[in-house]
Amino acid sequence: MKNLILPIGALALYSSAFAQQLPERPNVLLIYADDIGYGDLSCNGTSAVRTPNVERLASEGIRFTNAHCAAATSTPSRYALLTGEYAWRRKGTGIAAGNAAMIITPERYTIADMFKDAGYQTGVVGKWHLGLGNETGKQDWNGVVKPNPADIGFDYSYIMAATADRTPCIFMENGKGVGLDPDDPVYVSYTKNFPGEPTGKDNPELLRMLPSHGHDQSIVNGISRIGYMKGGKSALWKDEDIADSITAHAIRFIEKSQQSKEPFFLYLATNDIHVPRVPHKRFAGKSGLGPRGDALLSFDWTVGQVMETLKKLNLDDNTIVILSSDNGAVIDDGYQDQAVELLGNHKATGVYRGGKYSSYEGGTRVPCIIRWKGQITPGVSDYLVSQVDWFASFASMCGVNLPEGSAPDSENHLNSWMDAKQEGRSWTVEHNVQNNLSITDGVWKYIPAADGPAVNKQTNTELGNNPAEDQLYDLTSDPGEHFNVAKENPEMVQKMRTELLRIINSGLHYKSLKESKKDE
Ligand code: NG6
Ligand code: CA
User: Rounded to the nearest whole angstrom, what is the distance from the C-alpha of residue 388 to the centroid of ligand 1?
Assistant: First the structure.
């Protein structure tokens, strides 16, 4: 359908060179964590929690030490991953409410469309956070909400509309609420409460975990959320079962895909380790770091389960597994879950400064592993790579010609994904929660002077905003961005500024940042 709109069309042509190398198109399993920081996974060396399944994946593949998501929060990172376009080029791509309209409109050509054009079976399971339906706040959650992931290339979806801390607290399968009883319809509002419904603000006595900031509206499963909802009792998720449910549906998708000869692309977006962190009792209390550490164990379990499934189905050699995260680490993100108190020596962002929301490296430098048994030589890559490039890189692998105007920021770096010795990107733009941009070439990091608070006081995160001066860091000698060397290196500042402006202005759909900020 999109090919009608975009006349050039996507042709699933297989380049003869690649076809020679590969007997079959590989399956692609993308495991996308939520809020897991660079240092949270033990393969990266600074975690107080062992994540052995991820360690094994890393030892069998390439572990990237300089991989970036496109933004320091979820919605814009996911937008960029799926569209191949930096989210700051588009208004309305900031952290989405639970009742937001679908942010990626059906006429956009997405990475899922690309895989479909290559003949893949496509699926998304887990956290969505990219809006659903045509109009914000106007969804009928009791019917089929459209557009949904099926309209942007996913044959199958089993998703949480937004996040675990946002209403509606139900899973949606192919656009429809799962387990809803027609006699108990579900309603959602982000403006006012439904009469008679308790809230975290007014009824803290009903809560089993108190918010630390925000998160004081409707109560579901003894936890208050962002947003209001009522009804839908039979469909409400139990937080402690979310990881099991997501994992089971991911495994089912993989198993079912084997009934067809076509390969699969599965975007498996975990809820772990986003707040509220309420892992299953198998993990509760097991990490010593409280629910945040326990959620890491839960994430690792999910990784183990899907890896076991691949093995059992004899798909190891024919499946590319990628693992990464949507933004950097945050410790207290809104609930009193002891994450701060029990942190100890755990370094969630590794040596990197800032974290989720931030322009500093802790915001977007995330764990990243790719494994393809028999094809990728295990190793470590320190080269700069970005999630925004998965689109063009996999399109190249599949031999799909991208329609003109699609994936404008995505570059084909298939070689650097497949070979730790191959250099990656020249530059990548980092995007913080205030929509402030910075840029790195992997060695230098430039953060232009920009308005915004220095610190997110709620989460205690340094955001990197400094209206008074430019910042320049030498990441080789100072990966923690402690010494601003902008004044000593005016030429480098100028060079990076020029490059950043060139990238901004190269956008096909560029609106000035000021304009997009106004629209947010
Ligand atoms: C913030 C929430 C935070 C989290 C974040 C989105 C408050 C005070 N904080 O607004 O808890 O939900 O949005 O996280 O409400 S993300 O990983 O999905 O981007
Ligand atoms: Ca996130």
Answer: 22
